[in-house]
Amino acid sequence: MTINRRDLCLSTLAVSALAFARPALAASADEEAVAKRVEAFRLAQIAADPKALGALCAEELSYSHSSGKVEDKATFIANATDGKSKFLSIEYKDPTIKVVGPTAIVRFHWLGEQEMAADGKKVSTNLHILMNWQKQGDEWKLLSRAATKL
């Protein structure tokens, strides 16, 4: 079998194209995995489920509210599940996910409504959210979250 320069060049290009396609596929799989974790987090917030929230958050969590209050993991989960308010709805609109190595940057527009247990008053929230997720082993964990009022 005779191999000419053209065939060698084409085969080299094909192998190179496959090598570059693999990271794109991995990023896509990671983005999908992060998207599933973000949705699980949203559902856990609505349900005020401490076990689910705990499983989704990194031990090093820094959770910042639009008021400027910053909570660690234990404080966030305690306050999110204390029953003082109940989420009637939370919508994450126009999410974007960018995976950079073992980190994912997630942004979205938060629209929420909650009911206060003390007086039944309904409160709406309109926020811009930035989440940072970190791949720890095979799982993505929420490492930090920041909110800005809109």
Task: Kindly summarize this structure in a few lines.
The chain is an alpha+beta fold. Helices cover 39% and strands 44% of the residues. The protein has 3 helices and 6 strands.
Instruction: Give me the secondary-structure category.
Output: alpha+beta
Shape label: globular
Terminal Cα span: 68 Å
What is the chains' assembly state?
Answer: single chain
- Spatial strand order of the main sheet: 2-1-6-5-4-3
Task: Report the count of strand segments.
Answer: 6
Sketch the topology as an H/E string, one letter per element: HHEEHEEEE
Q: Which fold name is given in CATH as the topology?
A: Nuclear Transport Factor 2, Chain: A
Uncertain stretches: 8-23
Just give the CATH class. Alpha Beta
Reported CATH architecture: Roll
CA gyration radius, whole angstroms: 21 Å
- Major sheet summary line: 6 strands, mixed
Mean pLDDT comes to 88
As a percent range, the share of strand residues is 35-45%
> What fraction, in percent, of the residue positions are helical?
25-40%
Q: Helix count, per DSSP?
A: 3
- How many structural domains can be distinguished in the coordinates? 1
Structural write-up:
Pfam families: DUF4440. InterPro entries: DUF4440, NTF2-like_dom_sf. This protein has 150 residues and is of the alpha+beta class. It has one domain (5-149): Roll (Nuclear Transport Factor 2, Chain: A), CATH 3.10.450.50. The protein has helices at 5-47, 50-56, 73-80; strands at 57-64, 70-71, 85-100, 103-116, 122-136, 139-149. It has a 6-stranded mixed sheet with strand order 2-1-6-5-4-3. Helix 1 (5-47) runs antiparallel to helix 2. The radius of gyration is 21 Å and the shape is globular. Mean pLDDT is 88; it is low at 8-23.
